[in-house]
Amino acid sequence: MPDSVINLYSDTQTRPSAGMRQAMAEAEVGDEQRGQDPTVTALCEEVAELLGKEAAVFLPSGSMCNQIAIRLHIRPLGDEMYLHRLAHPITAEAGGAAAISGAMVMPLEGEGGMFDAATLRARMRDARDSHEPRSRLVAIEQTTNLGGGRVWPRARIEAVLEVAREFGLRTHLDGARLLNATVASGASAAAYAAGFETAWIDFSKGLGAPVGGCLAGSAELIAEAWRYKQMLGGSMRQAGIIAAAARYGLQHNVERLAEDHANAKFLAAGLAEIDGVEIDPATVETNIVIFDVADAAALHDKLLAAGVDSSLLEGRIRMVTHLDVDRAGVETALAAVKGALS
Ligand SMILES: *Cc1c(COP(=O)(O)O)cnc(C)c1O
Fold it and tell me: CA end-to-end span of the chain, whole Å?
């Protein structure tokens, strides 16, 4: 592989910038597990406010935010949870919803990683029938990852929440890329998180931090989340070092997500011009571009040899733009795809 890799594998590939490292070096720290790290405390207050919730807890990863939220909502008594077939807890959390929470998982279908209210409603169980599991939790991803970075429109979310209210479901928002949605749509993070009992954002994706996510909810739920955080080994000590990176990302790297979106749209438009590539550029709303070719595995390897890293998912190619890939990098990637397919 050539040295100069254009890394479109994921927005997790960002490296902490000089300014972020400076903020980390200067962070005030304390014992996070005892609630005594001032930088972590400040971060949690900022995220709770951003998401319009009472409280938040800092966790080592977004996956742990999902797993703890699922544990908060699901009782290991056959409770059933509803989420899209491509959702992260189904595809990429090692079966934790079953292993840690004892959840029954009902995958739902829908274009772009989004199901709709009617699809959810059709799966609701009869609470009076003791043969059936109990309907308990619905979760959505904003934006959808394997669905191609799509932004759930607020009206579609409202309709899903309406079904949740009717059937007494708990509600969870996987906001790994929630701030991509807010920058793309102009709606606030709190507006998207409204009506969800738990919601979280990731710092190690487009915000450019090395580690972490914050899970937000009511004071009561977050107090309970601390118990599961301890149980899963997620309590930390002088975590202000990494919380400082997260705060820096929130301060400096949110508005600029618009550049990643513009680069992704440029990439999608360029790909659509290449013979042998199948993509509808109109579906690219944020920083994720997923496309089809006849032999995705072969293209993936050729791109890697040409210095362009992408990911191969279910026989498709995914490219994710982020702050370490500029327009020139995207142009190089396009030339590499063209070269590999000609
Ligand atoms: C990345 C991602 C996660 C997990 O976050 P990590 O910080 O990598 O553990 C969860 N959900 C979605 C939609 C993601 O894209």
Answer: 20
- Ligand 1 centroid to Cα of residue 288, in Å, is 14
The reply to whether 12 falls in a domain is no
Clarify whether residues 43 and 142 are in a common domain.
yes
pLDDT of residue 4: 67
Q: Quote the tokens at residue 266.
A: 């440029």
Give whole-number Cα distances, 341 to 151, 271, 296, 319, in Å: 31, 11, 11, 16
Read off the CATH number of the domain in which 75 is found. 3.40.640.10
Exposed, middle or buried by CB within 10 Å (0-12, 13-18, 19+), for 115?
buried
How many domains is the chain built from? 2
Q: How far is the CA of 338 from the centre of ligand 1 (A)?
A: 31
Question: Residue 319: which pLDDT band, with cuts at 50, 70 and 90?
Answer: very high
- Taking the centre of ligand 1 as the mean of its atom positions, its distance from the CA of residue 128, in whole angstroms, is 36
**Which residue range forms the structural domain that includes residue 145?**
18-252
Packing angle between helix 327-341 and helix 257-272, nearest 10 degrees? 20
**Residue of 10, 67, 88 to mutate, ligand 1, most atoms within 8 A of C-beta:** 88
What are the distances in angstroms from CA 284 to CA 50, 132, 145, 197, 321?
A: 25, 39, 12, 29, 12
Domain annotation covers residue 327: yes
- Provide the β-strand partners of residue 135: 80
Predicted TM-score (pTM) of the model is 0.97
Query: What six digits make up the tokens of 312?
Result: 């191969």
Q: Over the chain, what is the mean pLDDT?
A: 97
C-beta neighbour count of 190 within 10 angstroms: 15
